[in-house]
Amino acid sequence: xxxxxxxxxxxxxxxxxxxxxxxxxxxxxxxxxxxxxxxxxxxxxxxxxxxxxxxxxxxxxxxxxxxxxxxxxxxxxxxxxxxxxxxxxxxxxxxxxxxxxxxxxxxxxxxxxxxxxxxxxxxxxxxxxxxxxxxxxxxxxxxxxxxxxxxxxxxxxxxxxxxxxxxxxxxxxxxxxxxxxxxxxxxxxxxxxxxxxxxxxxxxxxxxxxxxxxxxxxxxxxxxxxxxxxxxxxxxxxxxxxxxxxxxxxxxxxxxxxxxxxxxxxxxxxxxxxxxxx
Length: 278
What we know:
With 278 residues, the protein is α+β, with helices and mostly antiparallel strands. The protein has helices at 33-50, 57-62, 99-105, 117-120, 141-158, 178-188, 216-222, 225-232, 263-277; strands at 20-22, 25-29, 74-80, 90-98, 114-115, 125-134, 160-170, 197-198, 236-237, 242-244, 249-257.
């Protein structure tokens, strides 16, 4: 999806939190249009220039990755204070869309690929995660740890019970990805009550190898760090892969129950909150 639109901050944003710091890096929500423009420029560099996504004319001209969902989302930022205190400091981002925000458009981004009705039936707070990326110079442990701390703080503040989204494997040849897809299906399939399923016209079978053909260590080594991060948090995978030709990826649906988020992130947030209040 590549709908282009002038971006404004959401009219009813979710509750924010005080910036969390780790050395010169910090994580917080975007607070103005310039920061949103900066994160869209970062997404363009990562998705289009590095990963080979196919840009339409507007995307090429603006060198920005943006769509209509940016207008209702909250945007998590990792900033490096050594680069400045404005939009030039943005080095990582994650897009956060709550149920109330998605309702302003009429659906979640993931609904273009997956039937997420079982997730939407959950009466509690739900949150779609997407468009995660980090500048090439910051792809170590520190930036990703900060992003997860920021997500934990956000779900704590906004009473989120269930998180979901699409995570990507590089490339569109599902036979090349047979090991990873098969491993995910056999070992991390979501419980039926919260399991997304790829839409019928986009559904690609993930069981491309028999269970006894899977080398678990090799599969884990080949999985992208973001997917492994979801799995470490107790995340589950939906049924069916989806090829996304625009972004040159094969997507899987991910679901994470908030009470499975590792306790250390809550401890970080609660400690930082006490220090801010004290």
